[in-house]
Amino acid sequence: MKDIKVKIENVLPNDIEKRSFEIITEELGNAELDPLKAPIIKRAIHTTADFDYLRNLYFSENAVIKFQEAIKEGTSIVTDTQMARSGINKKRLGEYGGEVLCFMSDEDVAENAKLNKTTRAVASMEKAAKLNKKFIFAIGNAPTALIRLYELIKEGRLDTAGIIAAPVGFVNVTEAKNLIMELDCPLIVAKGRKGGSNVAAAICNGLIYECNSNK
Amino acid sequence: MKDIKVKIENVLPNDIEKRSFEIITEELGNAELDPLKAPIIKRAIHTTADFDYLRNLYFSENAVIKFQEAIKEGTSIVTDTQMARSGINKKRLGEYGGEVLCFMSDEDVAENAKLNKTTRAVASMEKAAKLNKKFIFAIGNAPTALIRLYELIKEGRLDTAGIIAAPVGFVNVTEAKNLIMELDCPLIVAKGRKGGSNVAAAICNGLIYECNSNK
What we know:
With about 220 residues, the first copy, chain A, is α/β, with parallel strands linked by helices. Chain A contains 11 helices and 6 strands. In chain A, about 50% of the residues lie in helices and about 10% in strands.
């Protein structure tokens, strides 16, 4: 590789992720991590290079085990963005029988959102509720999706295998996450303003990849 | 909205982005921003809730104007992830004639990567170079894509309208961005470890949305 003045570490493509996780582990130093939560925390840091995720992630009791049981039973994941859908490893999830669904671009969702003067994210959650299936929700963008999930569950119109709540933003984001944390279902929440479709996808992948480690 | 104990601000969906940018502007306080760069810096913060992007973003001389000229001429954007492709506003870009291309899932790219023992990101950049069109590159994941772009340009095998360099990560990411900053073409670089497909897409959208403001 000629002409290159900066030092490029000689790491094979397949080893880059492994080496990245080693660096993250080194830099976390003496931070004591729950071994079930650690792969998810590290994957959120891996996806953002933001060590705030060491403190940002809230897990409800036995959340990791419960999500992984659901995944192993073939539970599908509903996202609120095509970006989150793109980022989740659909092949690995598919090995357990689940798929990743995003209704945001569906025509009926756009129509219902317009009709009800709400967001497409809200209409997407309502569409999911009407399917009467037990989904995992991975929300990386819309606080309105979280608020609607809360209402649907409280009204007894939705049963869920768990919610990954990771919208990013400045308006109603922290509040919507605080609301979701009142629910009695498996939860992984990126508390505060930070999160994103990439973080929601990373949390899903962290759960999927470790399904066979945690029995 | 009954049963809700947390305070949700009453902001209409369409106003949430506007309100978010107001909050970001407030919190940036006295930071003096170049008016051309400001919408891009704020959009990167909006996408991550991470104010580090105030200091992280490098712009080559007149980068914003040059990227926007290219967009207005109908230049297409090549990404290194489907996530970045998902996040770019293809409708707004399409109004100028451009489209968003991602070759990562193409069969010939997978074959060439295997054949040449390299990454699909490298094979994607090589595919783009062979098309002999002047693209904008928006790289949100693979440092190997940046390194290959650098080589292709130095070898005279690729001409580009500009590179948005925003991979995230721990191995060769900072180094690959430092390498790209040696190039003499329009550049917007998320320096250091941080970035991601969401950040690459946000930078593209920041450019696209302001195309008509900057003449």
